[in-house]
Amino acid sequence: MLSLQHVTKYYQAGGNKNFVLNDVSLEVDEGEFISIMGPSGSGKSTLLNVIGMLDEPSEGYHYFIGQAVHQLKEKQRSALYKQYIGFVFQAYHLIDELTVYENIETPLIYQDVKGSERKAMVADMLDRFQIVGKKDLFPAQLSGGQQQLVGIARALIAKPKLLLADEPTGNLNSKQGEEIMELFRKLNKEDGVTIIQVTHSEKNAEYGTRIIDLLDGKISSSRKF
Length: 225
Fold this sequence. Notes:
By secondary structure, this protein is α/β, with parallel strands linked by helices. The protein contains 7 helices and 10 strands.
């Protein structure tokens, strides 16, 4: 499904290159659930952003479902992202001015899904996440756990093949965090969604089928379960 080959990301500072990712090669098969771990500053979020096409590598090759992403123009990359990738952020990234319903609906509007179809798909998501009663509320009126559920519902509404999650339980209490991780496990096992998450938590990492450890922008180890 996904292949990164010798991917490097650096920033120029004066005459020096500051490496965030350094010669990273990674293969991800469809249906995997991968956890990326490592200390702060090891390049975890940058790696996730490169995989999710939110960031471009300075060097290297990036293939996703048979497409050479490193050769695509920005508009083509954006279309690929919208069609196949869902992103869940630690800080939720919901739009404050929109209701729960409207936040979840947003990706479908970008994909030009017809109104009646959008309505049915959003209703299905609200039902699935048991947040029908919250649909007219705004993000500020929700708890952290509820906001994260809305964020996940929004990420999944367009039926992505790949779900990327950056510290998805970082702002939640342990019970809420556990519920989110169980939800991810179910999505992976029952719906076949490929998941790559960045996490500091060994416990959360073990929900995955493989743990990749990053250190100083390089993969230091890879453990399978």
